[in-house]
Amino acid sequence: MGINKVNLSQKTVAVKTAFPPIQVHSKFLTGNCWVLARFPVLRSSFIESGIEYERFRQLRNPTPPGALDNFSGTVATAQLTNFSDYQGYRLTTILGFELARKSFEFDEVETRTRGFVTIFAGVQ
Question: Domain map of the chain by residue range?
Answer without folding.
Answer: 23-123
